[in-house]
Specification:
Blueprint: H1 2-11, H2 16-19, H3 34-41, H4 47-52, H5 57-70, H6 79-90
């Protein structure tokens, strides 16, 4: 196990999904903001949609604004920053450690 953890760290692979507690019902990481994300997001769509997307804080905010403008998402109030913090922390961009393809 230690070798696997060290190998992942050397490769820059995130360990959040491996080491974090997952809610068995939703599959989301249990952490600060989990309850708000589960309540607000699952009111309109599957939480699988959250899990399959990756974005930084700006990207998640852009998705929230799009949902508010076009999909009828209500104002999130004080929950908005908690939700964005949670999403950016646990569902942020994944860096593969590989370089981008060379231009042709």
């Amino acid at each position: 196990m230690l070798r696997a953890v060290v190998g992942c760290l050397l490769l820059g692979v995130t360990l959040t999904p491996v080491l974090a507690e997952l809610d068995p019902a939703s599959g989301l990481v249990v952490d600060t903001g989990f309850e708000q994300v589960r309540a607000q997001c699952s009111a309109c769509h599957s939480l699988k949609l959250v899990q399959q997307n990756r974005a930084d804080r700006d990207g998640w905010l852009e998705m929230i604004r799009w949902m508010q403008k076009t999909q009828g998402l209500w104002p999130l109030g004080d929950n908005e920053s908690v939700i964005i913090d949670y999403l950016a922390k646990h569902y942020g961009p994944v860096h593969s450690g590989r370089r981008k393809p060379l231009p042709r």
